[in-house]
Amino acid sequence: MHLIYKILISSLIVTFSFGYYAKVEPINSYTIKSDITGKVIDVNRSAVSTNYKGVVIKVDSYKDDVNLKNYQNQVKNLKEILKVQKETMLRKKDTYKTYKKLKSKSTYDKDLKFYDYSNSVIAYNQTKNSISNLEAQIATLKDTISKKNISFKNYIYEIDVHKGDYLNFGSLIAKTMDLSQNKLYIYVPINKINSIKNKKVYINSKLSDFKIAYIEKVADSKFVTSYKVKLVGHYPVCSEIVKVEFK
Predict the structure, then answer these.
(1) Taking the complete model, does pTM exceed 0.70, yes or no?
(2) What pLDDT, in 10s, does the model give residues 86-99?
(3) Can you tell me the distance from the alpha carbon of 88 to that of 127, in angstroms, rounded to the nearest whole number?
């Protein structure tokens, strides 16, 4: 009993003569860290221990929202200016082409029309570049605003921020788990490794869909006469200690 108690406390996997014992774990666990900065203005704590897909943590985006609206208005205005500039540029281009063919016009007059046309091209391109730069800033702002409405893809195990906290890059936000599958780790004596290959896996004496994902080829540092074996499959309860058998 003392040995089994130690297993439950330490979550180590120990070999018995009648099988192996392992702790059921999520296939993956994630530590989520912030990639934005700002003050936390709302936290939905009821999302803990659920697969909730909505916004769980909201970070203040007021300044970003204001800047986004300003940039969008600037782009709208510049696009109207660009239309006028394009019409002007094409008109001056036609004028220059006409002057260029006329023998009655001096080189000086032709040069003036060329410079006039060239300046209109420069103005047009400068406005286009301004629009492109603003659109890039708009895309960045939209991405930042989106990131300030934080949701999670997986089961939410823990939320590590509170309303009023200030997030910096790398601040711990939450811990989540992928429960779509489970994994087990057992330690099999080296001389018995071949005996478990190509056999079906039984969990708590019942046939399961667990399969061997990999077998370490180097003896474990704690269980020096055993190889670590990872099993992947489905089990309804995480964190339960289960009996693993190969038949």
Answers:
(1) yes
(2) 999 999 898 878 88
(3) 13
